[in-house]
Design brief:
Layout (H helix, E strand, L loop, with lengths): L1 E4 L7 H8 L6 H22 L12 E6 L4 E5 L7 H9 L5 H8 L1 H4 L19 E9 L8 E5 L4 E6 L6 E8 L9 H11 L7 E9 L14 E7 L16 H11 L9 E7 L5 E7 L14 E4 L2 E4 L14 E5 L9 H6 L1 H24 L1 H21 L1 H6 L6 E2 L5 E2 L1 H8 L10 E6 L6 H9 L4 E3 L5 H11 L3 E5 L5 H4 L12 H15 L5 E3 L11 E3 L2 H11 L5
Parallel strand pairs: 2-8, 12-14, 17-18, 17-19
Antiparallel strand pairs: 1-6, 2-3, 3-7, 4-5, 4-7, 5-6, 8-9, 10-11, 11-14, 12-13, 15-16, 20-21
The protein binds adenosine-5'-diphosphate and magnesium ion.
The site of adenosine-5'-diphosphate has 18 residues, from helix 2, helix 3 and helix 4.
Length: about 550
């Protein structure tokens, strides 16, 4: 038996680990299962290239909780460690074995999915355990098993042990202040949170499986049952599969797997897949949003090689895409670093602009493939697209290809279609295109009628951020102006084909106008009587466009 000091410069790192990571104690399980997964995938790789002369078989990782013993065990059938390797990889805290492994097998290991390090690693076990044992046996022929024990001080012991099968068993003796982790329900919750899509099957207890009855079984036969492993994860989630091998049902099935409490189906999915200049896979879903600007639950989840990291993706995906759902998996996103660092990180910026571009391209291809379907879904996805248009320049630049402008009559125009259509009738004397729109078809009914009678197209733009979209369009397109149908200058701005002759003479008009104005008694409004005859309304009361916009902007929280 060897005794020695763990090679760290600080007197006792364990209180430090505990304090430093206070809020995140639960990640110990993620770290230990990641190590077990790494060890398993390393063995898979070594057997596949002929380096390891053992049977790979169908290895799994098992998690056991023993409340009486106050232990949690994580057992794998991976490469295991020799005594020298324990010395090297465990005792020299700062040394990352994964790094060395990857360095050595750099080229061949690239596609093997070996997880690499999170940076917290094995020692996160001491956030919840007062004593940790490692019982391990290397895959190498003739190696002896060893037991490493450490009680949270820098001293450890290392001795020979009897373990006949290959792999590693980590035994955590749970500390008094962490007994919540001895609850099966807590461990199950953590496994489902962090490990639901990890690449090696994870067993947690057993479950009863009912065998199918033989076809000729007499009526009343009781089906036989058997106890089988309760595997909590799906090692091959949809985002790791090539899009060409997936059907639309597969995507929907995966959506429900990701969000078990979500009963509605997504409208579209976008499969992300890039390996240069960074690695990223994932699937994004467009949920039915309507005019809803926030989704609090069932957010986009971030994974690193199939290990759940977080669903706080602010700074990684552009804000407008946080309205979507789905998964992003990338080994290139730096973890466990501060948000401000993340936002400044080059890789993160590239990822963000890649996703934006990909979503824009997908929208363009969806509308080309099936315009009718896209129009039908527009109302539920418009908020994402409009939000993207006002917040991401690159997205805005592409948006003419897919942003729709619906009319009060249920027609949908792309930008160019709209401007072509209204050019002949809605250009003022200075050559400005006047785009008429309503924000509420019921309230603005009579104005809409009046505009339609003149042959104008009236858009129905009713999302909460539309004032910002209009501002953006007016600021970047040449010679266009949006005017709400009930604005005061609709009549002045639009070129009329023929003058309207009123039945009232000027004196009658003046007195009627005065009368109405006195009744309303509010300078915010203007009374107009000019087109009394061509309109089914007796006269119109309008509010100046600038006043109305100011009010709208205030309602949606200022500029975009
Ligand atoms: P990292 O995973 O980033 O390398 P860890 O602190 O998590 O850092 O683990 C340190 C090293 O200990 C690993 O790189 C690996 O060499 C070794 N190790 C840890 N757990 C296991 C295990 N279950 N099987 C084999 N080796 C392991
Ligand atoms: Mg690790």
């Amino acid at each position: 038996m060897t005794k020695g000091n763990i090679n760290v410069s600080v007197e006792n790192i364990f209180p430090l680990i505990k304090k430093f990571l206070y809020s995140d104690h639960e990640i110990f399980l993620r770290e230990l299962i990641s190590n077990a997964t790494d060890a398993t995938l390393k063995l898979k790789h070594l057997t596949s290239i002929g380096e390891a002369k053992v049977e790979y078989g169908n290895p799994k990782i098992e998690v056991q909780v023993n409340k009486d013993e106050k232990t949690i065990r994580i057992i794998d059938q991976g490469i295991g460690m020799t005594a020298e390797e324990v010395e090297k990889y465990i005792n020299q805290v700062a040394f990352s074995g994964a790094e060395e492994f990857l360095e050595k097998y750099k080229d061949s290991a690239k596609d093997s999915g070996i997880i690499g390090h999170f940076g917290l690693g094995f020692y996160s076990a001491f956030m919840v355990a007062e004593k940790v044992e490692i019982l391990t046996k290397s895959y190498r022929e003739g190696s002896t098993a060893v037991r490493w024990t450490c009680d949270g001080s820098p001293q450890f012991t290392l001795e020979e042990a009897d373990k006949t099968d290959r792999g590693t068993e980590i035994i955590l003796h749970i500390a008094e202040d962490s007994t919540e982790f001895l609850e099966e329900s807590k461990i199950r919750e953590l496994l489902l949170k962090y490990n639901k899509f990890m690449p090696v099957p994870i067993k947690f207890g057993t479950k009863t499986h009912t065998l199918p009855l033989p076809e000729d079984a007499p009526e009343g036969t009781v089906a036989e049952t058997e106890e089988i492993d309760n595997i909590i994860n799906n090692p091959d989630p949809a985002w790791t599969i090539a899009p060409s091998d997936l059907t639309s049902e597969d995507y929907i099935k995966f959506y429900h797997e990701l969000y078990p409490m979500q009963f509605e189906e997504p409208l579209f999915n976008i499969h992300l897949n890039v390996d240069y200049p960074f690695n990223l896979t994932g699937i994004l879903f467009f949920p039915k949003l309507g005019n809803n600007l926030n989704i609090e639950k069932d957010k986009i989840q971030l994974y690193q090689n199939q290990v759940f990291v977080t669903d706080e993706v602010k700074g990684i995906v552009p804000d407008f895409l946080m309205l979507l759902r789905g998964v992003i998996d990338s080994p290139d996103i730096p973890l466990n670093v501060s948000r401000s660092y993340l936002q400044a990180d080059g890789a993160v910026k590239k990822i963000s602009s890649y996703i934006t571009k990909k979503v824009a391209d997908k929208m363009a291809s969806l509308i080309n493939e099936n315009r009718e379907d896209f129009e039908k879904k527009w109302n539920d996805i418009k908020i994402v697209i409009e939000y993207g248009m006002i917040s991401e320049e690159k997205f805005y630049e592409k948006s003419d290809k897919f942003a729709l402008y619906p009319t009060v009559d249920g027609k949908y125009f792309l930008w160019n279609e709209l401007t072509d259509k209204i050019k002949p009738t809605q250009t003022d004397k200075d050559g400005n295109l006047i785009i008429l729109y309503a924000s509420n078809a019921d309230e603005q009914h009579s104005y809409i009628q009046s505009a339609k009678e003149k042959g104008y197209e009236v858009l129905l733009l009713d999302s909460p951020i539309i004032p910002h979209v209009i501002q953006k369009l007016e600021g970047s397109k040449e010679k266009i102006s949006f005017v709400r149908v009930d604005a005061d200058h609709v009549n002045n701005l639009i070129k009329k084909d023929e003058p309207v002759i009123s039945k009232l003479n000027d004196t009658e008009k003046e007195s009627l106008k005065k009368n109405v104005e006195e009744t309303i008694n509010d300078t915010k409004f203007t009374v107009q009587l000019e087109d009394l005859d061509s309109n089914d309304a007796p006269f119109t009361i309008t509010q100046p466009e600038f006043m109305r916009r100011m009010k709208d902007m205030q309602a949606t929280g200022g500029g975009g």
